[in-house]
């Protein structure tokens, strides 16, 4: 069973805790994490690219010029895709890029990402991060002592003061335990878990 230190914002060790084997000591399978990241990014795509085919264009329906005698190819519609300003053939239309992925696979990938963070030394457990008010400057001052660039901070639930204080800080993201995902864990260099969020994470992934 893996063990990890619990530290304060001053980087002082105050305790040691055991982490779940099934969540933080899994047999990593990179291809599953890759599948989940692709699934996440596909869901984020807006899919708003759109073009007009000939049926969506509004032009005069009169014949452009007479059928014979001009020496030119016969033409009847300005909306033809062959003409400048005409409709687009097989162009993109608004669509959803989302695909389905079993919940079991998504849970597995999350376990693999957490295990990888722990094994690579990117996981830090904080006892707490109290913020009495929404103060970005104060948040930066407190968090800079940990010396963790580009960090994802996971909290147990809603904490308006902390979330809003860190909202505009470059390289820092506050995420509630319920929204923990593979992409963010892999994207950020460091993963900071509040001690209170660990039981929630383990409970969700073990069920």
Please estimate the helix content. Answer: 25-40%
**Radius of gyration over all CA atoms, rounded:** 27 Å
Structural class: alpha/beta
**Amount of beta strand:** 5-15%
Give the full name of the CATH homologous superfamily of the domain at 3-30 and 101-206.
Answer: Ribosomal protein L4/L1
Mean pLDDT: 93
The strand line-up of the biggest sheet is 2-1-3-6-4-5
Largest sheet: 6 strands, mixed
Can you describe what's shown?
The chain has a 6-stranded mixed sheet with strand order 2-1-3-6-4-5. Helix 2 crosses helix 3. A hairpin with a 5-residue loop joins strand 1 and strand 2. The longest helix is centred in the middle third of the chain and has 17 residues. The radius of gyration is 27 Å and the shape is elongated. The chain contains 7 helices and 6 strands; from the N terminus they run E-E-H-H-H-E-H-E-H-E-H-E-H. The model has no long low-confidence stretch (mean pLDDT 93). It is 31% helix and 14% strand. The protein is an alpha/beta fold and 207 residues long. The chain has a domain of 134 residues: Ribosomal Protein L4, Chain: A (3-Layer(aba) Sandwich).
Produce the secondary structure layout.
Elements lengths: L2 E5 L5 E6 L2 H4 L5 H15 L58 H17 L3 E4 L9 H8 L7 E5 L4 H6 L6 E5 L5 H6 L2 E5 L3 H9 L1
Parallel strand pairs: 1-3, 3-6, 4-5, 4-6
Antiparallel strand pairs: 1-2
What are the key terms here?
207 residues, alpha/beta, Ribosomal Protein L4, Chain: A, single chain, six-stranded mixed sheet
């Amino acid at each position: 069973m893996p063990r990890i230190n619990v530290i304060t914002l001053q980087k002082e060790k105050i305790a040691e805790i055991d982490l779940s084997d099934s969540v933080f000591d899994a047999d990593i399978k990179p291809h599953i994490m890759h599948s989940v990241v692709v699934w996440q990014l596909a869901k984020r795509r807006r899919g708003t690219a759109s073009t007009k085919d000939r049926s969506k264009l509004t032009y005069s329906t009169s014949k452009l010029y007479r059928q014979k005698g001009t020496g030119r190819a016969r033409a009847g519609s300005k909306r033809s895709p062959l003409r400048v300003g005409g409709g687009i053939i097989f162009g993109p239309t608004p669509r959803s890029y989302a695909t389905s992925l079993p919940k079991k696979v998504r849970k597995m990938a999350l376990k693999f990402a957490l295990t990888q963070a722990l094994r690579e030394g990117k996981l830090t457990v904080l006892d707490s991060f109290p913020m009495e008010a929404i103060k970005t400057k104060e948040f930066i001052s407190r968090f800079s002592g940990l010396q963790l660039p580009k960090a994802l901070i996971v909290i147990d639930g809603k904490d308006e003061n902390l979330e809003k204080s860190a909202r505009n800080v470059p390289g820092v993201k506050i995420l509630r335990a319920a929204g923990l995902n593979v992409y963010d864990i892999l994207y950020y260099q460091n993963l900071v878990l509040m001690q209170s969020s660990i039981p929630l994470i383990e409970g969700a992934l073990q069920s």
